[in-house]
Write a structure and sequence with these properties.
heterodimer; A: Arp2/3 complex 21 kDa subunit ARPC3; B: alpha+beta; mini-chromosome maintenance (MCM) complex, domain 2; 7 strands; 34% strand
């Protein structure tokens, strides 16, 4: 890799990270009629990074996003931060595993990401509260993860279709 | 969306429904006739509420006072100070083991069976 493409790669990744931080920060202010449900818009950028680069870059972008966004919001090392971190770690890991082992397209991967994000969060809530009964929320979160996952997956697909000139393998 | 996507989505939906059914069955079958609600602040019990009396209670949370209402053997958080008001939106709860959690206030309300711990056992005479 020569220095020009290295710079190009670095700036692309930085821009993807910046956009994902922006979406992460502005997401709570979006009005969603159902309490506790969010679209997970920042995940679009994670998926785009995964398909443009590889799993390593997706891990970096997602982790840095949670760290920097929490730092900017002033909630770092608070409850919300650990929930985000657990969700993002588990979902990113499962996206990589499912991409390697199954033939899920970007939409399926997005739904999987949302599902495992919820699972990771619930596990941490159970651990923090010392009761496994918070699992009660999991079915509700999973039911909402399917439509939101499809929405973010479709958005990521549409973006990738336009920016990857030679097309990308779904 | 391809075939494996649809299969995966189906699995997630079925898993959600099965889990919901199991939890629902568990909470309804584990609720007795007489219940008490236990209110904890930072994992320490601060209030024990008799669920058979309609009454209002107030406990001190991290961000301010949390107003609790009991009516017809059901309990809810009526009013509290928090960013999203998730625990007051949750509404009435009447089954044991379904927690009302107000994370910003560090308040957890959980209904327990009043007859769960029978005192008479060690004084039983045959």
């Amino acid at each position: 890799m020569n220095s020009k493409s290295k710079t190009r790669r670095l700036s692309l990744l930085t821009m993807l990270l910046a956009m994902s931080i922006l979406l992460h920060m502005m997401e709570p202010s979006l009005p969603i009629p159902i309490p506790g449900v969010k679209l997970g818009l920042a995940n679009i950028l994670g998926l785009i990074t995964f398909f443009m680069f590889s799993y390593k870059e997706m891990f970096n972008v997602n982790l840095m996003r949670v760290l920097i966004a929490s730092l900017l919001r002033g909630i770092i090392f608070g409850t919300g931060f650990w929930l985000s971190l657990a969700g993002v770690l588990l979902s990113t890991l499962m996206v990589v595993v499912l991409r390697k082992t199954t033939r899920l397209s970007i939409i399926g991967l997005s739904v999987a990401s949302a599902t495992f994000h919820c699972l990771g969060q619930i596990l941490v809530i159970c651990f923090l509260n010392g009761t496994w009964l918070m699992v009660y929320w999991l079915p509700i979160m999973w039911l909402s993860a399917v439509p939101t996952g499809i929405i973010t997956g479709t958005l990521a697909h549409q973006v990738l279709r336009r920016i990857m000139k030679g097309g990308y393998s779904v | 969306m391809n075939r494996s996507d649809k299969i995966f989505i189906g699995i997630v939906l079925i898993a959600a429904l099965v889990l919901y059914g199991t939890m629902q069955w568990f909470v309804t079958s584990s609720t007795g006739a007489d219940t008490v609600a236990v209110v904890s602040y930072r994992d320490k019990e601060v209030l024990r509420i008799d669920m058979s009396q309609n009454k209002n209670y107030t406990v001190q949370g991290t961000l301010g006072e949390v107003f609790i209402e009991v009516k017809d053997k059901a309990i809810r958080v009526e009013k509290e100070t928090s960013p999203y008001h998730l625990c007051s939106i949750q509404g009435w709860v009447k089954y044991a083991n379904v927690p009302i959690v107000c994370l910003p206030n560090h308040i957890v309300i959980i209904i327990e069976n009043a007859t769960e711990d029978p005192d008479g056992e060690d004084t039983q005479v045959k």
